[in-house]
Amino acid sequence: GVTFADDPHSVRPVTFSVAISLTPYEEQLWQFRRRMVLWFSILMLLLLATLAVLLRAVLAPVRRLEREIHEVEAGRKEVLGGGYPRELSGVARHLNALLIGQRKRLARYRDTLGNLAHSLKTPLAVMRSALSGTGESAQSAEAIGAEIDRISGIIEHQLKRAAASGGALLGQAPVAVAPIAADLRAALL
After folding, report:
1. 35-89 confidence digits (pLDDT tens)
2. What b/e sequence results for 78-96 when a residue is b if at least 16 CB atoms lie within 10 Å of its CB, and e otherwise?
3. Are residues 121 and 42 located together in one domain of the fold?
4. How many structural domains comprise the chain?
5. Which of 43, 74, 105 is the last residue of a domain?
């Protein structure tokens, strides 16, 4: 505090009070807050835009992988392409191995079914010729003929099934089943 001495024996304390208006200070504080909100809003928008651009760039290989998988499913591509980042290259490699293995299994199934059809075709032809060459009764001839037709139907059904199931697998182009079945039917009959 400040003391005022007008008499050497008496000391009196004196208090000074200074007052100014707070309006300029409050206005300056309000402007500062408005500027801070504006700058933080701009910064937030810039960060969101940067994040959107970065996410688009980071997820581009995933979108490319998805497009290639759709092309494989549609039969326009045999395998997935390369050039993926390390995180996706293993996935693409394993999917390609799966596709190749699936194609090999499908080829084995079709070969086996084709071999079955061809191995049954000859005995059926022999039975037909033996049936037409012998003078057996009409009833036994009809029974044998019915069995031959039944075996032919089973073979045709199995071949159609094999051809139809081939189109449902990944990466297979559609197979026209009708001409194959018609050719097989003509060969068997």
Report:
1. 999 999 999 999 999 999 999 999 999 999 999 999 988 888 889 988 889 888 9
2. ebbeeebeeeeeeebeebb
3. no
4. 2
5. 74
